[in-house]
Design a protein that fits this description.
Chain A has about 700 residues and is α/β, with parallel strands linked by helices. The first copy, chain A, has 14 helices and 29 strands. At the A-B interface, helix 3, strand 4 and strand 7 of A face helix 3 and strand 4 of B. Chains A, B: Keywords: FAD, Flavoprotein, Oxidoreductase.
């Protein structure tokens, strides 16, 4: 037994979108993490392709949103097509693909390989190339030492991992020369014989995150079974260049034919189009008692899928060239009842929820799972936050998974159903599609009350109660603090533009709030120029923040820079001409020991010279009379809205007291966050991040 | 004599901004070019830093405008400061730095090294790494064989080039540890002994472009002397991090003190600030009769510059840390009377014009020189355009250089002059500054009538006739064709947004008109849905374009794709809901032999879902009743406005007949431009360029 043994703070199993997103967080926050994958190759075609608004916001917060905007196809419009009396399809409506006003970004489409590349580049940059996907590596066993799960310093999870040969890791795809998703799932663990211990490593981890897909090995190891059901609806997928006289081929289209099934068109980058095509007639298995009567996916070919598509397209013609990828799937909705074991081993992404792909949710919700989880793990591993925050992962994300499954159940049955007399109602389909698009954007996810979301419990709102026997889906009602009438607590803070006081730049405030692991304290000061009370409270808050007893001081490690755990930002409703820089409270224009000043923490709500007026006070429903204090989580979700008075400060103090770990104080060692330029780390608006938070190496 | 000998179509001498810009064009258009530089290193600090609007538009057209927007500091505001009665400086006004509405971009600031890097990356990408700066290589002689200058196939220019050792190429900078510009100019040719022929290469070139700076060796070789004068004003420059209680340090500031001189502040990336500081007292040379009394730049130190700055800043305090670079210069305005010899050897950039740096013009105008020149050379080398177009380079750019010199003469004297009684007028200074900013943006450059700018000759407009003895500066009056009332012929076509018909995308039409070497024919069709005449002319134009006799066919090489020399674009004033795709004329939705359709050449003027209404017809002053045809040069300048009738087609036909070379026709070999994806070549809006124009390899 000369096998290798090692410790790691976090082990990620599975390098798909969920795994990459977790690794992106860990690289950004400087966590000692590893990521393994059993497949030998990255993917280069097919798979998921839609990037929803919220995902783009998150990409932007990591500094690569611009790559998505530049490279991906922007999908702007949905056209609905339905059969006329003659059984020909006709256009019935056009609507915007992204609900207008829901986000600064709109949905874009690009193949999954590019998306994983951006995260790979970001991981490389921030980890200085120390965090790389290790592949092909197959996990063999996972054990949790229950006696140690409450010890934050322990490594209670033991994972044995075998390095595969390239032959083992790259089973030949069948289905011909065209890449496809029919046989993507590699069950490398099935028949593997472990003969040589030298290829096996024993990894002791504080935390393990299973991002290993719908057939998750991690999920099975921790004894969780998916719940849900599968329908009879079979769909095929083609990534191809259509040659057609159908006029809307470059828009997203939802087509119901009279008798031949439905199609969804997703226009893609580079002249490609993804066609989701309902397969009314599919080859069935007959060779195996267990599988008998089920669809035999190995018999599905691009030609068979195209044949179905042509019937639906009638009277339009359809040929295809340059087909890049195809697959077929059977619609089902399944969700995991639990998302973790002992809050030490977590599962995320497809390991927790599977459903039909047409709403572009799988990859997005998967990435948002680990975007929710990994910063919490990072804060706990770093000793910043209490381990209790880890329980919010399941609470928050399981609800999202259930909402998704309920929505998809309804949506996919309406899309697959035959329209008209005795069938489904197309007007109901359109209505669900529009409501679903709002949900699918990811921007209305609403996290439940918890130690990191300070609000009373709210009722669920049902959508579409009167549906004909189909399950209704429901969303959590929003909760607003009257101080910020349009800021739902528990939702992501919608992006709004402000003007930088010091240099008159119009910026999205969110671009000042990068995903760097910091909590934000946004102080809406009101009109400090005209309102003496506002100016006085600004001074009170500033004095508090700079005092030795403040929550900033208490929860920031002595070795770290002062604002590296909690980052204060001031948004004034006074314009730049009415109030001087040096009259603003000092905490928001802090100097380091060399005298360097932070010029980028004070903003105003006023018209910019070239990009209009963000009207952030109006957008957030904050009165310039009263102002407000917002606490925003490292992932951009609103934790708390507090009043601009001593009581409000106390409320924020209590909030952080409940979440963060008190550090060993040593006031003298706190310095201002120094600007440190590295051309590779440069960021939007010519500002690289102002220094490195405590989480960075 | 075993020295190396070779042929090249174009040799660029000097790898500064002008040289890189020329190389960027040649890489993009697939021209056989080389670029040499005598210095051993790229620069990493200091030098020029401002990027003007027009430069950003050009960067965008090459596909790297986004890098500037992301990395550079956005400079939004100018604050004017002037002395009060007590001799203290006070803020007198704030104005936007970029004139509002003048461009889709605003001025940004970043050090020259990054800017050269973007061009280097673009050159690498498009030349597939075959075009690289060869350094250190020193040109020794240049000879033109006059008997061959009229033969387009000949290589009449012979340049001998010596490869330097690293020691020769990197003379030690004096002036201490801080990088500086005082001794940047390397006169490597002065004392060099050529002992070994093996280090010498003889290059035979069709064309040579000298981009070798203010002391241009190429200029001297072709016997051109600069004209102009030098003032007594001496200025110092510091790139530094100021520690100050001056409140506007992150804005551009123009400060006149009472007695101590003036300062310009340029806020930079990464907390840096560039300070231009007038030096009232400067060390003079005393050791040399020739130089006696002139400023001895070698005695200027950062401390001396800072000392001057502190006097001007009074009563504000100023310290500096992290100084990255410094220099000093004596203001002069010099311009070259000729820009070429035999239209075979050209000079560009600082080799043609030098002036004070504070308006951020040197690097920008230099790049715009070769942006103007290199596409013409490319078209001639490729046999697409007649060599006569090369004469337009001097005609167009010398006027710009003269305008610049006249403006700078006035501006720099007003800036350096003492304000108040007996001195200069600050209100005149402000007025000239504002007018100058419009000029400095690069967007109002107005090219003279020529074979590629079809307009009558226009008067010059004088600005500021009444100035007190200072030379007035003047701009060419605009010429408008009544069909496009707001499109000055000879100026760059201002950017405007349209909506892609096929997929509802709001795009800047300019982003469809990349700098890829193609001429554009923009057909403003009018309201084809409601106006039968407009629809009929659309069909006429389309039939013409697709006919064997059209200018598209005639001037496109048989081996090239149909629209690779002239690229037709249709902009309709009918909205997308009122007219069907297949009713638009065929030339604008052309199919290739496999049936692939071009979906990105038809646009509409209508509100987009998320980004407002571009109103391009209104912006360009084109009536939806009449429409218009615009011919736009490969560099984005408007050549011609023609009517939407048979006469208009004839006018365009005559225009191209005068400029382009008739190709050997072979209709059958023309194919549609195929979409070819390469992830590295991907471009804005998810569309990589639709195929490669004839100029690409």
């Amino acid at each position: 037994m000369a096998s290798k043994e090692s410790n790691v703070d976090v082990l990620i199993i599975g390098a798909g979108p969920a795994g990459y997103m977790a690794a992106t967080w860990f690289a950004r926050t400087g966590v000692n993490a590893r990521i393994i994958d059993k497949r030998g190759n990255k993917i280069f075609a097919g798979q998921a392709d839609g990037l929803q608004c919220r995902t783009l916001e998150v990409f932007q917060s990591f500094g690569f949103g611009d790559r998505a905007i530049k490279e991906a196809n922007h999908m702007l419009e949905i056209c609905f097509w339905e059969p006329n009396d003659k059984g020909e399809i006709i256009r019935s409506n056009r609507i915007p693909d992204t609900v207008v006003g829901i986000s600064r970004f709109q949905q874009v489409v690009l193949h999954q390989g590019r998306i994983e590349q951006w995260m790979t580049d970001s991981i490389k940059k921030w980890s200085q190339d120390t965090l790389q996907v290790e592949r092909p590596k197959l996990p063999l066993s996972i054990d949790i030492d229950e006696s140690k799960v409450n010890d934050t310093d322990a490594y209670p999870v033991t994972v044995k991992v075998k390095t595969l040969s390239d032959d083992d890791a790259n089973p030949e795809q069948f289905g011909g020369k065209i890449a496809n998703g029919l046989f993507r799932q590699f069950d490398g663990d099935k028949d593997l014989k472990v003969e040589d211990d030298s290829e096996i490593e024993t990894i002791h981890a504080k935390y393990v995150i299973g991002c290993d897909g719908a057939h998750s090995w991690v999920r099975k190891q921790i004894g969780i079974e998916m719940e849900g059901e599968t329908s009879d609806y079979i769909w095929g997928v083609l990534d191809t260049v259509p040659i057609t006289d159908f006029p809307d081929i470059r828009n997203r289209c939802a087509i119901h034919s009279k008798d031949s099934g439905s199609i969804m068109i997703i226009p893609r980058e580079d002249g490609l189009v993804r066609l989701y095509i309902q397969l009314r007639e599919t080859p069935r298995a007959d060779d195996d008692a267990e599988k008998k009567g089920r669809v035999d996916r190995s018999k599905i070919t691009p030609e068979l899928i195209l044949e179905n598509a042509r019937k639906i397209f009638h009277p339009y013609k359809l040929d295809i060239i340059d087909t890049k990828w195809y697959t077929a799937y059977q619609i089902g909705q399944r969700v995991s009842p639990k998302f973790h074991k002992d809050n030490r081993v977590f599962i995320a992404g497809d390991a927790c929820h599977t459903h039909s792909p047409k709403a572009g949710q799988g990859m997005n919700v998967s990435m948002m799972d680990t975007y929710n989880l990994a910063w919490k793990v990072a804060q706990v591993v770093k000793g910043i936050a209490k381990p209790e925050i880890l329980a919010t992962y399941e609470a928050e994300r399981r609800q999202v998974a259930r909402d998704l499954i309920n929505f998809d159940y309804k949506f996919s049955r309406l899309f697959s159903g035959k329209p008209g007399e005795g069938g489904i109602s197309l007007s109901e389909f359109h209505q669900v599609f529009e409501k679903g698009n709002e949900f699918a954007s990811g921007t209305i996810v609403d996290y439940t009350p918890s130690m990191i979301v300070s609000k009373p419990d709210t009722e669920m709102e049902k959508f579409d109660e009167g549906s004909k026997g189909l399950q209704a889906f429901e969303f959590r009602a929003q909760y607003f603090n009257p101080l910020a009438k349009n800021v739902p607590v528990g939702r992501r803070l919608d992006h709004a533009k402000v003007v930088t006081y010091s240099d008159a730049k119009p910026i999205w405030l969110a671009d000042r709030m990068k995903s760097d692991g910091r909590w934000r304290l946004i102080f809406f000061s009101g009109d400090v120029a005209k309102n003496e009370k506002a100016a006085a409270f600004g001074k009170e808050l500033s004095d508090y923040l700079l005092s030795k007893d403040s929550f900033v001081q208490k929860y920031t490690p002595a070795s770290a820079q002062l604002f590296s755990v909690i980052d204060p930002i001031l948004v004034s409703s006074s314009d730049r001409r009415s109030y001087e820089w040096f009259d603003y409270p000092e905490a928001f224009r802090h100097r380091d020991e060399d005298g360097r000043m932070d010029y980028w923490s004070i903003y105003t709500d006023e018209p910019s010279y070239h990009q209009g007026h963000g009207k952030i006070y109006e957008k957030y429903g904050i009165s310039p009379e009263t102002g407000a204090i917002l606490v925003v989580r490292p992932d951009g979700y609103v934790s708390l809205v507090a009043d601009t008075n001593t009581k409000g400060i106390k409320e924020v103090e209590d909030f952080f007291g409940n979440v963060l770990v008190e550090q060993n104080p040593s006031w003298a060692s706190h310095g201002f966050i120094k600007a440190k330029r590295d051309e590779d780390l440069v960021d939007t608006y010519g500002q690289n991040d102002i220094g490195f938070p405590v989480f960075a190496r």
